[in-house]
Hints:
Layout: H1 11-29, E1 35-39, E2 45-50, H2 53-56, H3 63-75, E3 84-89, H4 93-102, E4 106-111, E5 136-139, H5 143-157
Domain CMP/dCMP-type deaminase: 9-136
Family: Belongs to the cytidine and deoxycytidylate deaminase family. ADAT2 subfamily.
Enzyme class: hydrolase
Amino acid sequence: xxxxxxxxxxxxxxxxxxxxxxxxxxxxxxxxxxxxxxxxxxxxxxxxxxxxxxxxxxxxxxxxxxxxxxxxxxxxxxxxxxxxxxxxxxxxxxxxxxxxxxxxxxxxxxxxxxxxxxxxxxxxxxxxxxxxxxxxxxxxxxxxxxxxxxxxxxxxxxxxxxxxxxxxxxxxx
Length: 173
């Protein structure tokens, strides 16, 4: 269980897929390693993405947005009802509201974002009762690995020693 709610059997599997996408973002594009995959209720990948802000010169090209854009095109629909979005970092306000507007059913994220997290850490946009759509939220799935990957990205940029991906998370970045 995560956040008092049951975690689906497939959540860890899909989060590992999102982590692989995050690794690709860093390796191939030198982007902040955040990955996202949107999966249908039947377990089919609808869309996937990773941060492309730097490569695309696009401040809205967060992993979640990229995955939802690709899913919308693949399904020929702006509504992604019944889907689950797996993302390696808690979504920001922009991404949280896109999740609501797309009618994503579930959000599963790994690491919390203590600076801009909008799904319970800093803000709780998805929990606001004024929305006409509710999103089921599960945080913390493979959080340590995702957090350490992010920490290592910034440590490498600063020339600092890296953490083992499975090492206890730290607050230093």
